Amino acid sequence: MPSQPPEDRIVHLDSFADPISAHLAKSRLEAEQIPCFLTNENLVSLNRLYGPATGGVRLHVRQQDVTAAIEILRYETVPMTATFTADDDVPATDEVRCPKCDSTDVAFGPATRNTYNFPMLVLSMILGYPLRGKRYHCFHCQHEFKRLKA
């Protein structure tokens, strides 16, 4: 069996804790026409606890592309921040004020007090666990409220 030339050998370039990060790196390399592939992706996807034991999701490239790949992956991109603009979406928390104390220390999430209406009560009994509605919660005065559309 003839051996491969050193520049055609496949090498392990980097490891990632989750498949999403690995695919982002793979996409960045493929956008620069550097062929690459992932291993252990399905194993880590099945159970995240397998990741440390197997070395995570591994990114492989050819030996001749290592320096270019390292240069491409060296710079991290800044993640986009989520801002909501549609009326149906939840607005950013700095736009919402508590109607009781006018505080901006407000978050949107599962309600802490009983928010059952009849359909949710019936569905909760059928499913066997409580379904809570989502409301705004003021961390200053502990008031929970629904935001009225203006």
Written description of the protein model:
This is DUF2007 domain-containing protein. This protein has 150 residues and is of the alpha+beta class. The protein has two domains: 6-74, no CATH class; 93-145, no CATH class. Helix content is 29%, strand content 19%. It is built from five helices and six strands, in the order βαβααβαβαββ. It has a three-stranded antiparallel beta sheet. A hairpin with a 5-residue loop joins strand 5 and strand 6 (144-145). The chain is elongated. The termini are far apart.
| Order of H and E elements | EHEHHEHEHEE
Kindly report the average pLDDT value: 76
Largest sheet: 3 strands, antiparallel
The count of DSSP E runs of length 2 or more, i.e. the number of strands, is 6
- Beta-strand portion reads 15-25%
> Uncertain regions: pLDDT < 50 for 5+ in a row?
78-89
Total of domains: 2
Kindly provide the radius of gyration, computed on alpha-carbon positions and rounded to a whole number of angstroms.
25 Å
The secondary structure category is alpha+beta
What is the rounded distance between the termini?
75 Å
Q: What is the overall silhouette?
A: elongated
Number of helices in the DSSP assignment: 5
Q: Provide the spatial order of strands within the biggest beta sheet.
A: 1-3-2
Helical residue percent? Answer: 25-40%
